[in-house]
Design brief:
ten-stranded antiparallel β-sheet
Length: 730
């Protein structure tokens, strides 16, 4: 098995093909972390724990006169609270007697084949081709009768380890969980950089890299969603790590709500990383006998830089996270009505757009916001999911049939989690909204948030959505979320339960997904939250693709897609060609370049096809043909970032390489042009050094080594223009 316990030294050894993870039951039964990194087979690393007498670092009572044993110094698997470790704790619990201490000791463990699951929460799953083993370690606090179960699953062949935590109240009293971190990892050194992905609406997931410093560095969301501002994914890496070399540790949190990642460099230059639900606004009541299940974190390690780390995440998420069968299918080419018409349309206008799209090679027409209720702007109508027959005079069922007659599939936009104050739903059930009694609500995009912690609200949405999906031949749903949470208070619970609402909202949302998305496996669901405001692994459990950003400017999208690619597979990233001047930036970019950038994901269109010239329509048709030609290479291949937008200002380049390394597609966009500039070269990656290759459209045969070490000279093309190279083995 991939998990062993050495009884002689009380050491747990978890091994994948290329990594080792070790921890040890120390004297006095505390669980200490030993090592995570490059595989060290057949070695017990217990010797790494070096006890010392440290001033002002206290000792457990049972250590008696042994001043060399201190939890304030030793690396732990789950850090205690109020028991002598002054670093950030894994747990904060208010016990039945009002105390806030937790001191967990190993009580028992269990090793078994297969992957654990988490009730009500998304997590990785094992396929028939996987070798997966699981370790459960129970930590017991004798004084409070609170147990913590640490869960580890090892995907041996895929070099992935997952972690999760559950808390059991086995006391006779009610306790309150104020903090629970799904993952704690203590390193015995701190010579690392901290990488995270920050941003804002329309400029998501920009790479931020800083060295670790003494104290605490953290990222978080308190917005009720994983957010545009910070993504629940971080990397710890060597100072000199880059795409091709260096130790890199990835931590990806499988949760769509509030999260926090904290990294603390302590007084002895050790590092503690914690990842879990954001403690702010969180206070979960556990009655006697109740259990709390925390979300999962996916850990990956690479000793070959960021590219290898990304490949690990791309492969595991494509195969062991996305439950939709569309994940492994070629996606239809969509044209979306939003930037084509916004709220100003009727069904005749939309049908004309659809008709003009057919000869372009488009395969699906998606009707965006404005088709329902009194919805002529974002001031009203949200929540009233009946067809607006002033706009869609034929009705939704007949309109879908008209789209189908053109040879196109039909898709629809919904935003079920929100409601307008000017709506029949709000007038009927104002108590269904998040609100604080006695206070005026905070508005976002003129809408309020429905309280999904209430089962009656969830059941209403399930019935409403299923009715819509069954009312017409709908084959695609874009599920949007256009504001973050405020006024987080629920009339459905008492005072002591208000700290549970953020998390219960997420449990309610996943419950709705279970009853709507998973019961309609033949409908392609696309996630959206003002673009990329909820682009996280938990969403991919349900959605095989996510609208990457509301920003459709090709040059901005290069940076957004660059950051996204560090953890999320390319075949989950929806990207569209839009008009110029671009609606977000006003920039004008060549049509070819817009296609090149959109092909770095799931190609689609966000424009009014009736306003395109014959030449532009022909370009669309060629873009779609090229995309289909390279689809399997783009969707299934290994992805390489050939340039860094912070370091390479002249051009940006990226590459898809087939798993057998016999085929590759390289894309280049000139981002800054100078007069009489030097010759530029793009160096390729991922090929076989001694294999010979040809470049489509060019004469000559090149070794993989030449293409990777010497590169390809770039042609003299203009600013914002692009070029693609298709490379094949001979």
């Amino acid at each position: 098995m991939a998990i062993r316990f050495l009884e002689s030294t009380k050491t747990f050894i978890l091994e994948t093909k290329q990594t080792t993870y070790q921890m040890k039951i120390s004297k006095y039964d505390y669980l200490l972390h030993l090592y995570y990194g490059e595989k060290i087979p057949d070695a017990d690393l217990s010797y790494l724990i070096q006890p010392k007498d440290r001033g002002f670092s206290p000792n457990p009572y049972e250590a008696e006169y042994d001043r060399t044993f201190s939890l304030d110094v030793f690396p732990q698997e789950f850090s205690s609270d109020g028991c002598g470790d002054f670093r950030k704790p894994s747990i904060e619990v208010k016990n039945g007697d009002g105390s806030t201490a937790f001191l967990g000791k190993v009580k028992k463990y269990r090793i078994y084949s297969g992957k654990y699951s988490i009730p009500g929460l998304p997590s990785l799953f094992a396929t028939n081709d996987d070798t997966v083993d699981t370790l459960e370690i129970t930590l017991w606090d004798e004084a409070s009768s609170v147990a913590v179960v640490l869960l580890y699953s090892v995907f041996e062949e895929k070099n992935i380890i997952t972690r999760a935590v559950k808390v059991l109240n086995q006391s006779a009293h009610t306790i309150f969980l104020n903090r629970i971190m799904s993952t704690t990892l203590d390193y015995m050194e701190s010579n690392y950089d901290f990488i995270h992905f920050a941003g804002r609406h329309t400029m998501e997931r920009n790479l931020i890299r800083t060295p670790l410093r003494h104290g605490v560095q953290s990222i978080e969301s308190i917005r009720g969603a994983s957010s545009h501002q910070h993504n629940p994914f971080v990397i710890l890496c060597d100072h000199d790590a880059d795409e091709d070399r260096g130790d890199c540790y990835g931590f990806s949190f499988v949760y769509s709500g509030n999260f926090r990642c904290e990294i603390e460099k302590d007084q002895f230059d050790q590092t503690r990383l914690l990842f879990g639900i954001n403690p702010r606004g969180f206070c979960y009541r556990l009655k006697s006998g109740e259990c709390f299940d925390a979300p999962e974190t996916v850990l990956a390690y690479s000793n070959q830089g960021f590219a290898k780390l990304s490949h690990l995440y791309h492969d595991i998420y494509r195969n062991n996270l996305c439950r939709s069968h569309f994940s492994h299918m070629e996606r239809p080419i969509v044209i979306n009505s939003w930037e084509a018409a916004y709220f100003d349309f009727d069904d005749d206008k939309l049908l004309n757009i659809a008709k003009e799209s057919v000869d372009m090679g488009v395969e699906m027409f998606v009707l965006d916001d404005g088709w329902f209720g009194k919805r002529d702007s974002d001031f009203s109508g949200l929540g009233d999911w009946e067809t607006n027959t002033t706009k869609i005079k034929r009705g939704l069922t007949e309109f879908a049939k008209e789209i189908n007659k053109l040879g196109l599939k039909f898709g629809l936009w919904v935003e079920p989690e929100m409601v307008s104050e000017d709506s029949n739903l709000y007038r009927t059930h104002p108590e269904w909204c998040m609100h604080i009694e006695g206070r005026h609500p905070v508005r976002g995009r003129h809408q309020l948030v429905l309280d999904l912690s209430k089962k009656e609200v969830c059941d209403y949405l399930i019935n409403t959505l299923n009715h819509i999906l069954d009312s017409a031949n709908i084959e695609y749903i874009k599920w949007d979320l256009n504001r973050n949470m405020t006024d987080v208070w629920s009339s459905g619970t008492d005072v002591e339960g208000q700290g549970e609402i953020y998390h219960r909202y997420m449990l309610g949302l996943y419950y709705i997904f279970d009853q709507v998305i998973l019961t309609h496996p033949d409908i392609l669901f696309c996630g959206c939250a003002g673009g990329g405001g909820r682009y996280d692994p938990a969403m991919l459990y349900y959605y095989p693709e996510v609208w990457c950003s509301d920003n459709t400017d090709a040059i901005n999208r290069i940076t957004i897609q660059y950051g996204t690619s560090f953890v999320y597979p390319i075949n989950t990233l929806e990207s569209h060609v839009s008009v110029c001047p671009n609606h977000q930036t006003g920039r004008t970019t060549p049509f070819d370049t817009r296609g090149t950038v959109a092909m770095d994901g799931i190609l689609g269109y966000e424009l009014d096809s009736t306003k395109l010239t014959a030449e532009q329509k022909a370009l669309c048709k060629q873009q779609i043909a090229n995309y289909k030609k390279y689809y399997r290479l783009i969707a299934d291949g290994d992805y390489y970032r050939l340039t860094n937008p912070e370091k390479t200002k002249k051009f940006m380049a990226w590459q898809h390489v087939s798993k057998d390394k016999c085929s590759s597609l390289v894309s280049v966009v000139i981002t800054y042009k100078e007069s009489n500039e030097p010759q530029r070269y793009v160096k390729i990656k991922g090929l076989l050094p001694d294999q010979f290759y040809t470049i489509e459209g060019e004469n000559g045969v090149y070794s993989g080594r030449a293409l990777m070490k010497a590169g390809i000279p770039l042609p003299d093309i203009g600013e914002y223009e692009s070029i693609q190279y298709h490379i094949t083995a001979v």
